[in-house]
Amino acid sequence: MPNNFVLLLIVLVAIVVIAKSVKERHIENRMTRALAHVNGQPSGAVLMSANCRAGIAINREATAISLAGGNWINTEVFERSDVLSAELYIDGECETRTSRTSQAAGALVGGLLLGGVGVVVGGLTGKKKSRRMVSSVVLRVMVNDSDNPLHEVSLLAREQPRASPQVHKLIDNARTFHAKIDLMIKLADRENRVADRCEVPEDRLKSISTPTLSIADELRKLVELKNSGQLSDAEFQTLRSRLIA
Hints:
With about 240 residues, the protein is α+β, with helices and mostly antiparallel strands. Among the domains are: about 1-35; about 35-90 and about 130-200, PH-domain like, CATH 2.30.29. It has 5 helices and 13 strands. Helix 4 (about 215-225) packs antiparallel against helix 5 (about 235-245). It is flat. The chain starts with a helix and ends with a helix. Mean pLDDT is about 75; it is low at about 100-125 and about 210.
């Protein structure tokens, strides 16, 4: 009798495990199908959460983004002009952020907008804490939707060693995907600037197009930022090259 009870218990546990596995596979397949296309076009990049309950897809032309799961009952598609910001958080700290202003948020260094340069300096400044373990990697996207403006995709299911190959690959994928959204935001900003210029009367274009600061002034500010430690040598050289090009 005890042997039959143990056998029955094993069978029940196996059924529960199999049912859970089938359910998880069904959720994954449903999310995969939802993100396979954006506006009828094959997706160029797809990012899914660790539990496959939330995801983001970008079409190959980087003109639209699809959000699925999370707060969305149905998959929603937004044009790139409706993507307001993208943030990558690792263990609750924002590693990099891009916002739909006339310039990406990374170009704001120490409160100074590098007027005529118009390039992104990069990740957020500030000392990062060194940890051996990683407990969360989250990509957050804000879109122009009053009901559900924020979409989060959590990429890590449990705490793992930071040095593990799996975590390295996961973080690299998250950074790459953020870079793709960053590109979408920059393209949308550029389109806005072109549209704004087309609406300006010809007699005002010359005065508006004239830089308010000289190249020498911009270079001096870059040097000051580098000397104060707010710009790395690589960032300084990149900005300097683009400024004098």
